Amino acid sequence: MRLQPPSKQASLDLDCGPFLAIHTESAIRAGKLSEADVNGALAHTLTVQMRLGMFDGEPSRQPFGNLGPNDVCTPAHQQLALEAARQGTVLLQNRARSLPLSTIRHRTIAVIGPNSDVTVTMIGNYAGVACGYTTPLQGIARYAKTVHQLGCNGVACPDNRLFGQAETAARQADATVLVMGLDQSIEAEFKDRVGLLLPGHQQELVSRVAMASRGPVVLVLMSGGPLDVSFAKNDPRVSAILWVGYPGQAGGTAIADVLFGRTNPGGKLPMTWYPQDYLAKAPMTDMALRANPSRGYPGRTYRFYKGPVVFPFGLGLSYTNFAHEIAHAPTAVSVTLATLDGLKNSTTSSNGVRVKHTNCGALSLGVEVDVKNTGDMDGTHSLLVFSTPPKGKGDLEKQLIGFEKVHVVAGGRQRVRIHIDVCKHLSVVDKFGIRRIQMGEHSLHFGDIKHSISLQATLGDIRT
Hints:
Structural class: alpha/beta
């Protein structure tokens, strides 16, 4: 998809539905569009198709030309679906290490909630036909005896008529798993959510079941976007919270594998989870990223938002513990400038050096970090690297500049190398659209440790 230049028509060369096929001819007849515009769009579209090899002769002679029904739902593909669901599971809370559950101590599990036995819900949208489904209930049943109650008639949960049966199930079980959240009736393309709270009476169901349960209570959330589950986060009776997104056809297996410790969770939260009152301060009609305190606007994303969060971007716990140690990192970097005029024009301003005035080719850094597994369980760790600009310079809180996933056995360590491009990773686009590098002391965050790098504008070389 390619936007036409603003000086021409504000239109697209291609859309994903029938709109252009239906309306283009009438637009030409009405004089709103010329045939030359259509021909230009067609040329762009055909050019992309050519780059994709769509006109390269007999398809069966191309690399993927012989794919057929036998290539669908192969064991390898189904294993990939399972592994993706496992890796995408995010452990948000785990009080007193209540997870993983034990097949010896937790022989009977109460499985409760409107998403506890779903199938199609797990694949979200923009998905093909699943090879088969394993629901959360079916997955947990492979590890323990289950007592199942929906608790709600669908995720809308319009009333509490089924809560009594759910509470009874929780009293009978050694542990309770509540599978709650959303589905395509609440959030989808062409359907905007109206709030961040769990729909209907879901929150009441969680709280009442947690009060009734005689064992640990695990809240499993299916959703594509953030949820304000502050009530559960602050409820000491809710032992653990997992977010699984829409985990796909093998979602039930993956959830159960994490609950019982066959899989050590290593996923990280891909978005900030805001409290419900954030919506009143950040209307949908204002998409500015930067906060504006003068009008009470809080800003958007972890990069600029400074207010309270339910769970922060990048959060993801494990059943083991990881520690970090910097093996090698520069402490001072000279930001070389292309011209003397660039040095004069840039450094006289507190706004920082314009990237276009620098010699970016000489500003590539390597940082090495040792990741140590200090716990008693093997685990996969995603090392997230954030940078923070010098204090008092700009309104950026921090930004993700790199990440690396590494598997570390219990008691072991792995060295991770992170590439840092100063012009790309330590710069910020200001409110006028100019990308600048702030001079001064930048902080790099590697998990639980920080490292400072001092940047200075000069005509010299990099010093490490």
